[in-house]
Amino acid sequence: MLYAGIDIGTSSVKGILVDINGNIVAKKNIQISLQTPKPGWMEQDPGEWWSATVKVIKMLVAEISEPIFSLAVSGQMHSIVVLDSSGEILRPAILWCDQRTSKQCQELTLKYGGEKEVIKALGNPILTGFTAPKILWLKENEPEVFQKVCTFMLPKDYIIFKLTKKITTEPSDASGTSIYSPITGEYDVKMMDILNIDEKTLPPIIDSGEVVGKVTAPELPELSETFVVQGGADNAAAAYGCGVENPGDSMVSVGTSGTVVTVLEKPIMDFEHGVHLFNHVRKGVFYHMAVILSATNSLNWFLDRFAIDKPFSEIERIAASKKTGANGVIFLPYLNGERTPHRDPYARGVFFGISSFNDTGDLLRSVYEGVAYALRDGYESIIKLGDRINSIKIVGGGSRSNIWSQIISDNFGVIMQRLSVDEGAAYGVARLAAESSGIDTSSWIKVTKSIKPIPSNMKHYNKMIKLYRKLYISLKERFQELDEMNKGG
Questions:
Q1: Which of 234, 362, 377, 422 is catalytic?
Q2: Average pLDDT, stretch 398-424?
């Protein structure tokens, strides 16, 4: 039997097929577009997600002779899809990295009774990337759209709806909406009242890994006997895909965004550092997550804007040839604002310390290091909450970089473990798909390499990060001034 995992990402839709032993049988990937109608705004067409999903599935099916027994879907968190009564898309999806809702976050927090009350009830503060403030933004800025909304959905749940015609969600994705409480496991009545929405407009919550139904989409007649399984939020699914599922397990993911995830026995809220508390895809299990908004996105932006068209092996060689500390250049990777620990939608990217001595290689190295500093901020914010960490697995596209993985290990002062299979969230939901038919997937997770921190590098980075942190503090008010100037034209 074969099992499929589909991941609706920000830059692509990815699909994999695995056998009962967790071996990759086939994998496909289709790039998708991203729209930025205004500075800080990020949108995508859910219809493009669906067309890409259909293409990916058809390409996978073309490579096999056996049937796909079941498939599960993961997707980017927080992004909002709005449908009318006919199930048609009313507007482009507003994404997780969109920063337009600062005013709505403040408004919702105030109406709820303050940030402390919000965190106590919902496990997290209300942030610009989350779903609830997007709903309020729609209500206040696009009332003609808001009036027609019959269903508010998350990306993976939209794809499951297209596959099965059934509307559902599950706890790990619902945790990032600011409408659902990971502590109670239910939608929050008070928040729904503030937003003036009915629970009927929200997807019913079922368990991660629960069978939704068979594929009914007319575009995919070849899957008419395939079961669709509720998946999980991309970060929870990615954690599950690398075996981060028991208390003490931890993961660093270096993707478009960057995350640090640790698994908990019981919910612990963070009232200070901006660490998220979410439900895992395993029932009754929680995890802490620190988030930075631009990880590989920072590197991709740098290579694109500076017209560096070289093979990745050459990019790696250049970065590795530069000294620890990038010859004095420090990069703040806040290209789209920042979450942990600053929770600052106004923060922006900065190169600091450039002199006529520096070259492009120093700036490249500083991008690698700046992302590592930001991830370290998140890691240390989690440590302050008292989380016990047994091991750390490093995953995501950026983890394939030897120099980047080493820099992160040097900053954390912890061994990073690489895995035999690193297919992220798609692999995690493939595990869920297999487990829905009774397969034990624990043997799928295999560590192949351990990256140890280098003491001399650790010492140097311990000094550099102090200056990195001072830079943000000194620039925080300037970021807000710049935002006001840009608004004023």
A1: 234
A2: 95
